[in-house]
Amino acid sequence: MSTASPSGTPVPGQLTFVAPRRAKPARHLADLTMAERRAAVTELGEKPFRADQLSRHYFEKLNGDPALMTDLPAAAREKFAAAFFPSLLTSVREMTTDAGTTRKTLWRLFDGALVESVLMRYTDRTTMCVSSQAGCGMNCPFCATGQAGLTRNMTTAEIVEQVVAGARALAAGEVPGGPGRVSNVVFMGMGEPLANYKAVVGAVRRMVEPAPDGLGISARGITVSTVGLVPAIGKLAGEGLPVTLALSLHAPDDELRDTLVPINTRWKVAEVLDAAWDYAARTKRRVSIEYALIKDINDQEWRADLLGKLIKNKLVHVNLIPLNPTPGSKWTASRPQDERAFVRRLEFHGVPVTVRDTRGREIDGACGQLAAAE
To answer: Coiled-coil segments, which residues (predicted)?
Structure first.
């Protein structure tokens, strides 16, 4: 892993991630387990069952304003608001495309840090793409967020609130298609999720726990991405959470991956893939290999062949991503013919492969673009 140098620049090859020290967000209901909520309510001089009521309002009714929780004693509502419902996210800017079914929101956190989330409504599901850090310390050169550097880790509640905000918009019928619910969550927004391990696992638990403990989203509908933090992948495999692991590989050879994904200087391709196969064996979940196709950089047919040989006959699926270029970047998407050739070579090796639907290109869909512009 890497630490931050005094200048804030990530230093590859170390074993811990340290965000710059700053004030922490106030505690929120979603930061706490149900047992912790009951204890906190009791400390306020209220009966423990009030925690269940608060949880049902927030996770089931999507209401975060105790003033509207009329089944609670009026005298206690202000107390609950101060203790459990601080303002976490403030919408700075929202952009829509795909006839309103794709919505990207730029959020300002309590300390001014900026993060992004995207709601994508399809005919059979609605997916929220959420951020787990403000910025990112992985320093991948083709990624807008990576070039911005790491500001800080997000809290469990700040992560969860992105999903709740999307769920509120769906429930209110604000997204074309009528009232709905969030069915899928992907940790593919700003940040390296496994570098903020405790908060991310806490957020996943809030998402999958049934109401009133959490949002009741199926663990199989949640995907956690990583550039390949090997110890954290092993730890996640033991959490008892059958979420999908998405490995951002982007190159099958160490020479190129050292450049595209600098953490590869710490954990090489073979070691990262071994961790992925171990994850698949322990969770029985198919691993997703994320591969951004970059023109003349990693889209050669021989690299497709090498990738196919490395992952064939594994519990795996390749998700090819036409690069969403960022302003001023030399990196751009592969030519259509090269993309097609890459797919053919993977299919030749019997590897399941799809090309990701590139939603959001018209609204600066690559994570970090809105924050950078702001």
So the answer is: none
